[in-house]
Amino acid sequence: MSTEFVIPGAVGPGTQPTEDDGQALDYMEMPREMATFDLPIAPEPEDTVGMEAGKARLNELVAALKGYRIGAPAAVLELGDLAPEDLGLINQILGEGEVSMVAGPSIQVQEAVFAGVWRVLHFDENGDVERDTIEVAAWPNAVRDQVFSLAQSEAAQAEDPLPPSVFNAPSLLSEIADKVSTRKVGDPTHSINLSLLPHTEEDLTYLADKLGVGGTIILSRGYGNCRVSSTATNNVWWVQYYNAQDTIILNSMEITEVPEVVCAAQEDIDDSAERLMEIMAIYND
Hints:
2 domains, single chain, Ribosomal Protein S8, Chain: A, domain 1, 26% helix, alpha+beta
């Protein structure tokens, strides 16, 4: 299945371009190009006649946003029962925001222009959409529940002898193993800034091999072009920032449930509730 995110019944562009970034580490392909996003252009009320089900679902979303508090389970709205015109209205109002995710072959996510509102597509083994939902949460529970479900619980250690040109990877693996084994839910993120540490390309390749490649890739365009990749080791992520020339300017590892750059904050969700409520006011009069 392609890693492109395609919103069923989308109004306007609904895909994320993908291409190989040419880096040494063998990650899944994800979009790397910077993209701008704007507030949705809401259709005139007279153009939404007959789309009452879509408008009702958007009003449910407003209520979900107003009632949501960070840390609670995601509020989930099902969209699979909607007619194409109702789904098209929802797509147009929600738009496409800063964050895109691919979680293995079965889940693709696109954040709306409203932070904390996530469009989640669930695919079956044939690559067909079997469930279409909206989640209101800091980040999608659908991804959270599976990202490290098959990960190794402990970080691998370096072996002796080391491969040629591998020097600093063993000490990094020891640090990661210690943080993984002692981490408790809610502990502060432990970051390792690889950009500030001496290392060879062989060190990075060795780290990637020992930690394994996970199935979740996240692209955030909120603070520059940032790519977040899960490893096959519990709670260990690669976090990489790129400049406009697609060169890595910050390469780090984070030991945490999910990097902060991915998540919406409570104030983001509160603001999303207010902005969506303002848009929906023109249809509720």
